[in-house]
Design goal:
The protein is of the alpha+beta class. The longest helix has 21 residues. It has six helices and five strands, in the order H-E-E-H-H-E-H-E-H-E-H. Strands 1-2-5-3-4 form a five-stranded mixed β-sheet. Helix 1 packs antiparallel against helix 3.
Length: about 190
Amino acid sequence: QDEVNEDVEMILKYLAEYAAGQNDESVVESTVGDGYMYIRFSDDVFFRGDSYTLLPAGQEALLGLCPTLDEARLIIDEIMVTGHTATAQVEYNASKDRRLAGDRAAEVAAFIQENSTINPARITDQGKGQWLPVAGNVEEDDRRKNRRVEIVISFAEESLDSPFAGSIEEYYTTTKQENPNMNTAEPAAE
């Protein structure tokens, strides 16, 4: 439990430093519960309205978060990324709403996967669309709060023993498969 607490504190420290660097405490919100951590970045950090293209500010935030996740990987059980949208102000399209929410979550999950050593099997994503608002949907400031990505990190009850625990290296070692990202063959002669 002490190791979990230390790693949670390390992640919280990064989030506080990130918010201080943005001169806006509301840019990131975090909560720690029994065995999990909840993180929500404000909408304008990650995406513009009606878009799932990750903004440079979101990339910067995640590039700072990924090393702390790597440090804590021995106690991370799962990272769940959830995408949300605001209520459509014109005609509602369920397919577009769900896809946008899902694409936002997938974009953040893929970025974490590409920039950390966390086992991709431990990173999941889902889109909730407009169905779990945290504010009203009339005023633009409230709508912005609803367009968000949430990250929930669940922690293992005890530290995983392998130095590769929770990593892609462990998966390929355990399953005795060749890692397609690690080309160990000799380069072909030209």
